[in-house]
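Sharing a chain and its predicted structure for anyone who wants a worked example. Both blocks are below, sequence first, C-alpha cells second.
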Amino acid sequence: MRLVFHPGTTYKFAFHAVDSLASGTDPANQFEFTAQETATIQSVDSTGIAEIAVALGNLTLTSGGVGSPADTGNSRPAYGVKITPDGRILSMDGPPVASKFPFRIGFDGSLIVAVLPDNSVKPGDSWTKTYDQVNPFGASSGTLHIQSASKYLRDETVAGVRAAVVETISDATINSTENLLPGGVVGFVLTGTTSTDVTTWIDPHTNRVLKTHVTAKTNAAIGSVVAPGAPTPTATPIFGEADESVDLVLI
C-alpha cells in the first residue's frame, strides 16, 4: 500500500478545520475554517517522493461563531511539502512558526495522511514507524520527532470506491527555533508535545487519498532566545495548548 504521485496532477479537497487555542491563564479561543485546498504535484523523484504545492482558496474564518467580510473569500499562498509514498511528510516551507498551528493545521491547511506500510497488508494488520520531520514549522532549525502506530482498520465504500481505511496514532516531540534579526531577543524556541489521530481513506486502484480526518492535541511553550551579553532579560516562557480537528474530502 502506497501513494503514487504524477507530476502536473492537481487534486482539490474540501477543507474544514476547528482549532481551540488556550495560552497561559487566558480562556480558550475557538476558530473554524472552511476552504478549498489545492495540491499540485510539482515533481517526483526516483524513490516516489513528491514535491507538492498546497494552497487554500475561498477561505472562511470564524472566531467564537462570528466572522466578518474580511474573513471570507480570502486565499493563502501556496507552500511546499515534500511527502513520501508512505505518507510521511519530510519537510515543509512557508511562513514562520508564529503564524502556524502544529502539523500545518489551521491557517495553512494540511496534507496529513495516515502512515502507510512498506509491504502488503490486509485488514487487521498493524505496523509502527519512528522518524524525524525536519523544520516542520518553517523555522530556522529544529525537528519534530514522531513515533507512529498504524492499523489497516477495514475496507469501506466512499464515493463509489472500495477504499482502504488506515488509522495512525502518533506522539511527537517538538523542538524548533525561529531566528530573528541580531540584537537583544534573537529568536524564539518552541518546545512541547503533540498527539494526533489520523484516519485516511485510500483508493487502492489509483493510490490516492479520498478523504482524511485528523484530531490533534498539543502542549507547548514558546520562549525567547537572547543574544549573549545583551541587556534584554530572558522572558518567561508562554505555555499553551491546542485541540484541533481537520477534515479533507476529495472533490
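Comments welcome. The longest strand covers residues 161-179.
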